[in-house]
Amino acid sequence: MAVSDVPARELLRQAFAAAVAAADPLQVLAAHLPPAESLRGRRTLAVGAGKAAASMAMAVEQHWPAAAHLSGLVVTRYAHGLPCRRIEVLEAGHPVPDEAGERGAQRIAELAAGLDPEDLLLCLVSGGGSSLLSLPVAGVPMAELRAVTRALLASGAPIQEMNIVRKHLSRIQGGRLAQATRARVLALVVSDVAGDDLSAIASGPCAPDPSTFADALDVLGRWGVDAPAGVLAHLRRGLRGEIAETPKPGDPLFARVEHRLVATARGSLLAAARVFEAAGVRPVVLGDTITGEARDVAQVLGAIAREIAGHDSPFARPVVLLSGGECTVTVRGQGRGGRCSEFLLALARELTGVPGAWALAADTDGIDGIEDNAGALLTPDTLARAQTAGLDARRRLDDNDGYGFFSALGDLVVTGPTRTNVNDFRAILLLPG
Fold this sequence. Notes:
This protein is an alpha/beta fold.
């Protein structure tokens, strides 16, 4: 296969499909399960939360010894469930938590507390778990947790900083699930966080938390979040030492906790790179931790692309620039769209006049923001087609309306729920002009 044999549009889609497949728990989780002989005579409770929770649960069931005990409960996003037999699957709200998630988290906490030291708590952790595993502390009703979550989402705060706040408003996150059980804990993790920080993925229910109440208040102040009264009161009580901190690194309880990374953004980027290599395109993996405001990231990557297109330096064409990591969007307009469509709309402007420039940006979970698309596709004639259709790219960007822009052009990437999540996938393909 050579690049001339595969249309650029199809090549980009094939690469994205490979990236998603590399993070599919049904394909990659089995290798991380404990050996069958270690399960004899032991109760195993599988719990978890996230966009990959149902597929992780199904993968566990498919490979679990029939004679070994297994029960459990996981919480996933609405429309992401699967028909598991031994592990119950509940659906709840994301990215804003709801009462269904609260009830599921309460049941998980109770089940984990009932285990004995010789039992195994198998914790299935994936992106989205911060919302789906919401069990707010006393004095913070769900309505207030929902309000502060919405405000943080709109502020442009990065996910790691959002989760510092959420961990300090939770009875189950920030290591408190591991603290609540006497069992040995094995946490299998699908990472959606830059750098694979275990304390940030799903707000680290079984991981030590290095952040503090002071850090949580600092996040709210730095991002201009007007938090509800109950939220502020709780965090200030913690700051005064009236409420115990989350368990920290070095706490003896984590001696019985093991984490294993099942899928990562880097693994998905490398899978996509192999698709491009087979097509005769040089893949350049810029990194899986590229974050920042979506339009700022577009400006930087666009500048690199222009240098390549103009001078075949530092890489000769055909070449593809691959990157991962979660961008942010500060919402100022009334449009529709997530960070991937925002990135591409900004990139379209940066690549004005650059021949042979294609790009795809999509979230591996199949959901860009809160819309029904995973992302979108940018072609060399995107802006020309937009002008013909009467679409003003600058105005749409100012209105945060990437979804509306690419929908009108027929260039949305729609996958439906992928039931995994290793964050955003970005590919800028530069062909000879």
